[in-house]
Design goal:
Layout lengths: L1 H45 L9 H9 L1 H11 L6 H16 L12 H21 L6 H30 L6 H8 L18
Helix pairs in contact: 1-6, 2-3, 3-4, 4-5, 5-6
C-alpha cells in the first residue's frame, strides 16, 4: 500500500513539473518569436539601397561595366518574406560586390577607384557577416546599409572626378614632362659608378 501511494505521489509531482516546464518553454518560444519579428521588421525598414546611378558618368559606365550593373541590380531587388530571404540576398550582394574588381574599365583602373571599391566590398562583406550571426544585431546591419550607400556614392563621385580630369586638355610639353618623370622609363643603374678623383 505504501508503494502504491509513493508511486502515485511521484506521478503527481512529475505531472506538475512537466506542466511547469511546458509553460516555461511556451513563454520562451513567444519571447524568441517576438525578438525575431522585431529583428525582421528593423531590417526590412532599413533595407534601402541607392541602386540608381547618381551622375551621368555612372549611367554611361553601367552600360559597359557589367559587374557594376549586376551589383546595382542586386541592390535593387528587395527580399520580402523571411529573415532567411534577407540572408540569401546579402550573400548575393556580397558575391556581386566581389566581382567589382573584375574587368574594371581602363579609365577607372586607378588606385583611388580601386581603394573605393575595396572599402565598398569590406562594408558589404561585413553586412553579410552580421546578418548571418545567430543573434543578428539588426541596428548594426541597418547602419552598414547606410554606410554601403555612402561608399557607393563616393565611388560614383570619384568616377565622375576621374572623367572630368581626363577631359582637361594637356598643356604644351606636359606629356613629355610626364614621360620624363615616369620612373619605369628610367635607365637602370647596374652598380656603383667609379668616380675618379684628381689630386
Amino acid at each position: 500500500m505504501k508503494n502504491v501511494l509513493f508511486c502515485l505521489l511521484c506521478t503527481v509531482v512529475l505531472l506538475f513539473s512537466c506542466q511547469d516546464n511546458n509553460q516555461k518553454r511556451i513563454a520562451e518560444n513567444k519571447k524568441e518569436t517576438a525578438r525575431k519579428e522585431l529583428i525582421f521588421s528593423t531590417i526590412e525598414k532599413g533595407w534601402v539601397f541607392y541602386d540608381t546611378p547618381i551622375n551621368e558618368t555612372t549611367e554611361e559606365t553601367v552600360k559597359t561595366w557589367n559587374e557594376l550593373r549586376l551589383f546595382l541590380e542586386e541592390l535593387s531587388k528587395k527580399p520580402k518574406k523571411t529573415i532567411g530571404a534577407f540572408q540569401q540576398k546579402a550573400t548575393a550582394i556580397s558575391k556581386a560586390a566581389m566581382n567589382l574588381n573584375n574587368n574594371i574599365p581602363l579609365q577607372f583602373d586607378k588606385p583611388q577607384i580601386k581603394s573605393r571599391i575595396a572599402v565598398l566590398i569590406t562594408k558589404v562583406r561585413m553586412m553579410d557577416l552580421f546578418i548571418h550571426l545567430d543573434k543578428i544585431p539588426s541596428e548594426k546591419v541597418v547602419q552598414l546599409i547606410s554606410e554601403i550607400n555612402r561608399e557607393l556614392a563616393t565611388l560614383q563621385r570619384e568616377m565622375d572626378k576621374t572623367v572630368e580630369k581626363n577631359k582637361i586638355p594637356l598643356e604644351e610639353g606636359e606629356s613629355e614632362l610626364k614621360r620624363m618623370l615616369d620612373s619605369t622609363r628610367a635607365i637602370p643603374t647596374t652598380g656603383p659608378t667609379n668616380v675618379i678623383t684628381i689630386e
